[in-house]
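About this split. The held-out portion is used to measure sequence recovery: a designer receives only the structure tokens and must propose an amino acid at every position. Recovery is the fraction of positions where the proposal matches the reference. Here is one held-out target exactly as it appears in the evaluation file.
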């Protein structure tokens, strides 16, 4: 008997209409392919999107303007 997978809730995504082209060196491409194969990623583009957006959001959160300067708070 086949196990039934729980159904995922349907999430409406914005259509991806913008295209970005990235050039990789031969070594970078080999590393990416190795990672995809090792961790059995279903989609390289989804993996790249996730990595890039995670980095972008982390940088934006780290540089978020605050009411008080962080350096002043650390010196007290």
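Reference sequence for scoring:
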């Amino acid at each position: 008997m086949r196990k039934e997978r729980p159904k995922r809730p349907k999430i409406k995504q914005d259509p991806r209409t913008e295209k970005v082209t990235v050039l990789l060196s031969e070594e970078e491409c080999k590393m990416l392919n190795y990672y995809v194969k090792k961790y059995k990623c279903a989609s390289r583009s989804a993996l790249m999107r996730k990595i890039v957006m995670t980095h972008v959001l982390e940088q934006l959160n780290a540089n978020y303007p605050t009411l008080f300067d962080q350096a002043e708070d650390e010196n007290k």
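Annotator remark: The chain is about 50% helix and 0% strand.
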